[in-house]
Design brief:
Order of helices and strands: EHEHEEEHEEE
Largest sheet: 4 strands, mixed
Number of helices: 3
Radius of gyration: 20 Å
Structural class: alpha/beta
Helix content: 10-25%
Distance between the termini: 39 Å
Strand order of the largest sheet: 1-4-3-2
Length: 212
Amino acid sequence: MTSTAPTTTASPGLRHPGIPGATNVDHIAYTVPDLDQAVAFFTDVIGAELIYREGPVQDPHGDMMRRQLGVRPTAVAHIAMLRLGPVTNLELFEYEAPDQNRVLPANSDWGGHHLAIHVTDLDAAVRYLRGQAGVQLLGTAQTIPDGPIAGNRWIYFRTPWGMQMELVQASTGLPYEHTTHARRYGPAPAWDTDHPRSPDSSDPRPARNPSA
C-alpha cells in the first residue's frame, strides 16, 4: 500500500485531554448477518474467546431501540462479546429490523471498515487462511515500499459473510518513529498477553495484577 499523500508529523508531547476519565478503548463492534456463524469463525479460525452472549435486546412496546441505539423501534438485537487477543474486546450484533440494508460497504464507501491482526509470519498466516472454508484472500501479500510504515507486509481477506479483514506483519524501526515520540501499539509478545482472569475462575491461570 503506497501513499502519495504528504506525510504529516505529529507534534511530540502535545496531547488533547480528550474525554474526562477515559482510560482505554473498551470494545469495537460489528453487525453481522448470522451471529452463530460469526462467533464460530472468530473463535475457531481467528482464535477469539467467547465471553458471553445476550439477547434478545428489544423494546416491542416502546421507543428505546430508536432513542438509545438509533435503529428502528421494532428492531431486535442478539449480541456476543469476544476477547480478541491481548487488548481487544470484539462485540458482534445480529439485528432483525425492517428495511435492513444487507449490503456490506466496500472499503471505499462511507462506513467502509476493516479489522487488522498482526502476525509474526505473514506467509504462514496466509497459508493457514487459504485452507479455511469461505475465506477469500484479496490478491497477494504486499510489502510497503516507502512512507511512514515502509517495510510492513500486509494482505486483505474477507470472512465467509464478506467482512473485510487484514493481516499485518510489522517491520522494525519504522520510518515514522524518527519523526515523532508517538507510537502505534504492538506488536504484543503473544496473542494472550495481559489476559485478565477472574480471581474465582476455575481457569488455572492466575488473574492479572494490574499493578504488576
